[in-house]
Amino acid sequence: MIEVLFLLFAAIALGAAINVLAQKHVLYSSLSLIVLLTAISGLFILMQAEFLAVINVIVYAGAIMVLFVFVIMLLNLPADEDGEDRLRWLKLIGIPMGLFLSFMVIRTVWDVRATPLTPELAGTPQAIGASLFTDYVLPFELTSLLILIALMGAVVFAKKDL
Amino acid sequence: MIEYLSSREFLILFAKMIAIFGGVMGALAYTTLLERRVMAFVQMRPGPNRVGPFGLLQPIADGLKFLFKEQIVPTNANVFLYYAAPIISLIPALLSFSVIPFGPDLKIADVSVSLLLIFAITSLGVYGIVLGGWASNSKYPMMGAMRSSAQMLSYELSLTLSVVGVLMISNTLSLSSLVQNQQGTWWGFIPRWNIFLQPVGFLVYLLSGIAETNRLPFDLAESEQELVAGWHTEYSGMKFAMFFLAEYANMVTVSALATIMFLGGWNGPSLPGPWWLQMALPTIWFLLKIAAFLFFYIMVRASIPRIRYDQLMYFGWKVLLPIALANILVTSFLVAVL
Amino acid sequence: MIPLNWYLILGAALFLLGMLGFFVKRNIIALLLSVEIMLNAVNLTFVAFSSQNGQINGQIFVFFVLVVAAAEAAVGLALVIAMFRNRETLNVDRSNLLKW
Questions:
Q1: Which end of chain C is more exposed for a tag (fewer CB within 10 A), N or C?
Q2: Is C51 within 8 Å of A67 when comparing Cβ atoms?
Q3: Model confidence pLDDT, tens digit, residues A17-70
Q4: What is the pTM of this model?
């Protein structure tokens, strides 16, 4: 049963990722990315990380992707025009090298065998909170500073007159 | 897998799903009738009372009308997104009901993070509005969609922050545990509801919930006096019915969450009676509380004027958000001290 | 129980797809989306290892990856808006004023 769910979510994730690359208009790519994010949240739930799955949907699919979709709609972007085919002679070397790279990467992780531990890990909010606020409290505070800087930077960049 | 699908627990689960889903869809249809009748009585007119006794068959007549309407697609509209937007709006609205506990054991799924799950699902409902407005390729829907999505994003912040006080008191994110922590009474007659512990949180949640579901006084996105119908101007027939249903489902979800978090969920005084009454009594209390919230929603719609867009954004960011943060500060201090 | 290498292969495949998009696409927003695919693949790998070893550190790190992705998406989109205002195009090949 759980293998069926894994294969379903994996197929949706791979299909959505390929669709992100294959679409001409960038709005459809963003919508495919939202589908990819929900598939990855499903995979998180299969791995008992339910808090992270829900946070993924709230933050990524519900806020960051809304930002993307807003910008695409406000700028009213047309579909990509077919520019000059600059990749014509790059494709000759690129495709074999790309296939070779993929082969090497996937071969590295192909037979990683690990003894499955007794699943005592639960991705409950209590466990994550206990670790986040005791061991990792310094990165936590620094990331809040990072978000503040990014916020100020984004507002300054997008102003009409600096 | 086949043996799971034919096992007894799955059949009970399936029966619960049919009961909850059927009940919710029926309740949504009759909420439209309730709204029209209550608003009509406030405005000193009878409302729809011709179709059936007291107008009780009106939602069925409306449903048939929606089914038989002509399907119009505007020219130069983005056909795929035009058809997909009502679906994207309706699915998250209905999906939230899978984790709401209607009774001590009348819930479809019991997840340990169910409150956050409902917030995640409702934050996906923004896309239906944005895409519906954009796909219609016309100026009123576009303006309505932009206004509505900015409003929904802003009020999501104060919505999620206003419940942190309740979470600090109850130490759990699961909705059924939140309800169970509110059982019993203090001194025999005051029920142990969270509204007595978190009044400020309740007010902020209620206001953010009304803003989140695009209802008056926050319904600039579909204001009938300015934009023709906002983001669903170009929609007719069953697609419009789906947007409509999604809006009412969001209303019922917000009311149900307010009941669970602040009014004690399905807890209520137990009345003497036959065994089937005892079994159904928690669900009846829950539905009565949700009905009270829906009545409040409709009365607010009938009586309060719409606020302007800049006033709305000012209210969301500069009034509700600091109040929610101050509530968290005070609650955490009191929880640590007491 | 799903064996670990299935998750790792899926994460590696998604990462390679994101890399492919990053190298091939010309639209700036498509480049940002490819970066998001790569970050998601990395998140998947972190959580897979975290659930395998029974430690919570992988999931904590996913939090930080999520925060950095949010900050980077916000600043990247602000840059896109500023660029679009000047050039009226989002093709990265047109932004070649510094080339010889």
A1: C
A2: no
A3: 999 999 888 999 999 999 999 999 999 999 888 899 999 999 999 999 999 998
A4: 0.90
Selecting from C8, C51, C78 the residue whose C-beta is nearest the C-beta of A158 gives C78
Query: Which pair of structure tokens corresponds to residue B18?
Result: 């049919």
User: Which residue, chain included where needed, has tokens 């068959």?
Assistant: B57
Q: How far is A38 from chain C (nearest CA, A)?
A: 11
CATH of the domain at C27: 1.10.287.3510
Cβ pair A58:B123 closer than 8 A: yes
As for the ipTM of the complex, it is 0.92
Give the CATH number of the domain where residue A45 resides. 1.20.120.1200
Report if residue A97 sits inside a domain. Answer: no
Separation of alpha carbons A120 and B76, rounded Å: 55
Q: Does C56 touch chain A (CB under 8 A)?
A: yes
For chain C, the residue count is 100
C97 falls within a domain: no
The number of domains in chain A is 2
CA C36 to CA A56: how far, in whole Å? 12
Instruction: Look up residue C91 and give its two tokens.
Output: 């093709």
Question: Does A have 3 or more CB contacts under 8 Å with B?
Answer: yes
CB-CB under 8 Å, B112 with A70:
no
pLDDT value for B206: 93
The number of distinct structural domains making up chain C is: 1
* Chain B residues whose beta carbon lies within 8 Å of the beta carbon of residue A57: 120-121, 123-124
What are the distances in angstroms from CA B246 to CA A53, A157, B24, B70, B91?
Answer: 24, 37, 12, 21, 8
The CB density around residue B315, as the number of other CB atoms within 10 Å, is 19
- Residue A155: inside a domain: yes
Residue contact C57–A114, C-beta within 8 A: no
In a domain, A157, yes or no: yes
Chains C and B touch (3+ CB pairs under 8 A): no
